[in-house]
Amino acid sequence: MSHHRTFTLAASLLGAAALLSTSAGLAHAGTDDPLRGDQWGLDQVHAEQAWATSTGAGAVVAVVDTGVDLTHPDLKGNLVAGATFTGCGQQAQPCGNGDFRGPDGQNNGDEHGTHVAGIVAAVADNGTGVAGVAPNADIMPVKVLEEGSGTFEDIAAGIRWAADHGADVINMSLGGLAGTQALTLTGLESSVTEAIAYANAKGTAVIAAAGNSATPFCSTPAWEPGAICVASTDRNELKSWFSELPNKPDLKAVAAPGGAALTSCKDDIVSTVPAGTGSASCGQKDYDYYAGTSMATPHVAGVAALLFAQGRTLADVEAALLDTARQPGTGLTGVYSPVHGWGIADATAAVQYAGAASVKDRKGGTKER
After folding, report:
1. Among 78-92, 227-241, 276-290, 308-322, whose mean pLDDT is lowest?
2. Which residues are catalytic?
3. What burial letters (b/e) apply to 84-103, b meaning 16+ CB within 10 Å?
């Protein structure tokens, strides 16, 4: 529907607010990544304890976003071929390789996708920066946003390309403004809805950000059928003030660490950024602290990668994610709440969930890279 190209999806909370602290944390005992001590998000989702069972090796996570710094030392070991669907002009899509700079060769404030990618699968134990939730998973950079926004059509094209090229998981840390669900509910916009269904039909999980407008419902595309909607928690496991509540008709919704976006950078999520773009107020040269449901989503995508690496089907991955998510405070599983959905994603519990050995070749063939 070309007449709907004016509807845009804005990447959520590109930077953390009012940052103060600048010092690096102590390395965690489990890895030698210098910023591991600041990665409270990994601890909240119990990622490191899951690595004895799965590190994500062989799973592919498409980061459908603003593109990725393909030369980042904490990411390049885990990158596979990507694609660009924005800024193509008269060129056929795709018109690039997923680099954050886009077809014009410029960084137009497009650090976001690199940050998201590091949360999913930054290389662990390399003496550099941070560790990802699934540190041996592959990252497929798919650039669909430029200057923080993009069209439904370009995003849908990126989803379909990722599903066709071997993505097990599609991470979408992006969303329309509150109320844009009406566009898909009324049928005015259907391209992304149909692309998510296409990806699911190919066995690919779609993980999407709830949004940062503090409204009661997941924004689109997290709202759409088949997408798992992810709300944000702070380091105390409370709902982040900015987060949408993770409510949607199919109840595919969880929570994960996204930060506070208030006063201290240490209360936000540290990850990779394109070389030299770390903020002077808080970050380092190649790392920075952001907050948003954009940061919560890749924590869940990383857990999904750990699960796909075990040879699970899409249905089993989704069941493992939702059934083992725990409600904060009580630790209860199998309980839905309007504030946290099924609860905070729990990597360690998920990889132990029954069904890991049920399907050895989940897609009936080898991945296309």
Report:
1. 276-290
2. 65, 112, 294
3. bbbbbeeeebbbbebbbbbb
